[in-house]
Amino acid sequence: MKTNKVLSAVLIVLAALALASCTGKKFHVSGVITDAKDSLLYFENMSLNGPVTVDSVKLDKDGSFSFDGKAPDAPEYYRLRIARQIINIAVDSTENISVKASYPTMSAQYEVKGSDDCSKMKELAQMQLGLQASINAIQQNPNLSYDQVDAAIQQTLASYKDKVKRQYIFTAPMKAYAYFALFQTVNVGNQTVLIFDPRSKKEDVQVFAAVATSWDTYYPKSERGANLHNIALQGMKNVRIIQAEQAQGQIDASKVQTTGVLEIALPDREGNIRRLTQLKGKVVMLDFHMFAAKGSTERIMHLRDLYNKYHAQGFEIYQVSLDTDEHFWKESVAALPWICVHDSDGPNSQFASQYNVQTVPTFFLIDRNNVLQKRDVQVKDLDAEIKSLLAK
Question: Is residue 4 part of a domain?
């Protein structure tokens, strides 16, 4: 009798678990990736803190796979990944999404069914690849000056953003693909940057605000919606600050026309304000650096070699530190012979923003007339470039 009671209890528990399993809403992602035998396919959730592995499978010869997950209350983002080849997936509820691709071209060429969001994201991903190819071609054009390269890239980006805004974002800002479009990136000079800049560009901040407002309405308790809302608010605040500075004349356009560079005026180790434009007549390396970053010591040694080699001929280094710890910076530059200044705004430096510095270290070469000549990514032989500018 006791055995029967135990058995009955076990059966009741199993039945309850089975019922819970049946009623729990799930989404399903399956498909085939050919030419990937023995490759490890990852199914990753693209959380706000980065990719998180949900599941993985070692592919057989036929390349079939299948993943399941709990249906989200608001759009959620996943990706299928083999090495660096990625297919982005958006899940809105209980979709049954099918993917067909071939390795190693799965990022650029794949079929997706069962989700309009995923189809639109595929279009955006392919457009993004085309944008990157256009930017690469501009950067590799030896007949363009630094200013011409920058102008051409900005024009290309503007055209891309206009199309994406009109065809993908403003038409349905509540959709998963509209959110996805906001966070697309592109590589400009070995620096990965957001195509839509929510930090300082008024037009781009407005795009983030449009999607944030829509998500506030459709998904009022979602984590991603709250994150969008915060990004838009911070962007608006930044834009107001920039506009106020422009109104006060802190960003003087006439200086750009006269000198060819945007002025930088920051304190050195002793508190003396050092101006970039005061170095007219010298060949200058404008260098944005963080002494706390990995590899700083080796890089400083290389700069010291350059300085020792060319300083007597008219070469100078104007180094802007974005370190947050000012005391650490002062100790780090105590023995350096070139001009070292510190921006207390650190990574939020307005000067770094004006020069479109997305990562550090980044440097620029400026000729004797205070005209900006090249950015680091355009320099293949630094010694040869410095010698050339010194000879002019």
Answer: no
pLDDT tens digit sequence for 265-314: 999 999 999 999 999 999 999 999 999 999 999 999 999 999 999 999 99
Final residue before a domain boundary, out of 185, 217, 247: 247
Note whether 239 and 339 are same-domain residues: no
Write the single-letter amino acid at 263. E
Does residue 119 sit within a domain? no
Is 361 within a domain?
Answer: yes
Q: Which residues contact 388 (CB under 8 A, 6 or more apart)?
A: none
pTM higher than 0.85: no
Nearest Cα residue to 131 out of 87, 162, 169, 90 = 162
Judge if the upstream peptide bond of residue 361 is cis by omega within 30 degrees of 0: yes
CB-based burial label for 42 (10 Å; 0-12, 13-18, 19+): middle
Contact between 151 and 211 under an 8 Å Cβ cutoff? The reply is: no
- Segments forming the whole domain that contains residue 206: 124-247
User: How do residues 123-177 score in pLDDT, each as one tens digit?
Assistant: 999 999 999 999 999 999 989 888 899 899 999 999 999 999 999 999 899 999 9
Q: Tell me how far CA of residue 36 lies from CA of 80, 89, 106, in angstroms.
A: 13, 20, 10
Note whether 368 and 324 are same-domain residues: yes
Both 334 and 242 in a single domain? no
381 SS3 class: coil
